[in-house]
Design goal:
The chain is an alpha/beta fold. It contains nine helices and eleven strands. Keywords: DNA-binding, Transcription, Transcription regulation.
């Protein structure tokens, strides 16, 4: 059924006068009358009772008016929704982030600003390790990810846009000799045991620890693995080893845990947003624009 004819039918039904309906539709009366006749022929029934003095709806016309208004409202809504999606104002955006990102202001600032600007977008947030995000982005399961990484972690098909660099801290028991100074040299820790993420977790921190220790002339001795950063902090606070973690986690207060800076310019972790190679969707373009504005204002 032609939606245009339904619009003509609704106009005549509401005006109950072909002349006024034609003026409302900005068309001549004869073509309007022809379109209504064509609609009646299509449906096989009269929709109007016509006389010289008035026009009224038949029972079939009254029933069609209810349905036609609903159909036209749905059609207008669909057009509006499609246009908003094309402008990046509606749809679903899947955002990944590492477990330590909520401790950084950037994630909250970007999400809050984006929500205020694009309230109709469904934001799906997923906590994932960096390598898991790379895989999900490459497979189309994630639109954008907030990742902490090293250069060696770059993945084919994924573009990284650096938005900052986070210093790293060594977490240790407050009674450790190295915990009393302003910073520590990695060479002073050659006889210490370290707590790291297990290999299957997909974070680059174990690789950074290896590099820092190599720079200091030794290989780290791993005494414990833990999948959660807060678990590593607790183990370090218990004196079971030393953990290497982003400085943002200093806000996690566990008794007897001390966060110590490292005297090595390589003790940093890149903070980036990761997206798939290729064209950027309107949804993602809007998100990246908000991110750029928040980063500039930081």
């Amino acid at each position: 059924m032609d939606l245009r004819r339904l619009r003509y039918f609704v106009a005549v039904s509401e005006e109950l006068n072909f002349t006024r309906a034609a003026a409302r539709l900005h068309m001549a009366q004869p073509p309007l009358s022809m379109q209504i006749r064509a609609l009646e022929d299509e449906l096989g029934t009269a929709l109007f009772i016509r006389s010289k003095r008035k026009v009224s709806l038949t029972d079939a016309g009254q029933r069609l008016l209810v349905r036609a208004r609903r159909l036209l409202d749905d059609a207008d809504s669909a057009v509006d929704e499609v246009r908003r999606v094309a402008r990046g104002e509606a749809g679903c955006l899947r955002v990944g982030f590492t477990a330590s990102m909520p401790f950084s202001a950037v994630l909250g600032d970007v999400l809050r600003s984006y929500r205020a600007r694009f309230p109709a977008v469904d934001l799906q947030l997923r906590e994932m390790f960096t390598r898991e995000q790379f895989v999900a982005i490459g497979q189309g399961g994630l639109d954008v990810g907030f990742v902490r990484h090293t250069a060696s972690m770059a993945s084919d098909g994924v573009v990284l846009r650096e938005i900052g660099r986070d210093p790293l801290r060594l977490v240790m028991h407050a009674g450790h000799p190295a915990a009393t100074g302003d910073a520590v040299n990695m060479a002073d820790l050659r006889d210490e045991g370290f707590i790291v993420f297990p290999p299957d977790v997909g974070t680059g921190l174990p690789g950074v620890l290896q590099q820092l220790c190599r720079n200091a002339g030794f290989a780290p001795r791993i005494v414990q693995t833990a999948r959660e950063a807060t678990t590593q902090i607790g183990l370090a606070a218990a004196g079971l080893g030393i953990a290497l973690l982003p400085a943002q986690l200093e806000c996690v207060h566990i008794p007897r845990a001390r966060y110590v800076p490292i005297r090595d310019p390589a003790a940093v972790f890149s903070l980036s947003v990761a997206v798939a190679e290729g064209p950027v969707s309107p949804l993602l373009a809007g998100f990246l624009e908000v991110l750029a504005q928040v980063s500039e204002g930081a």
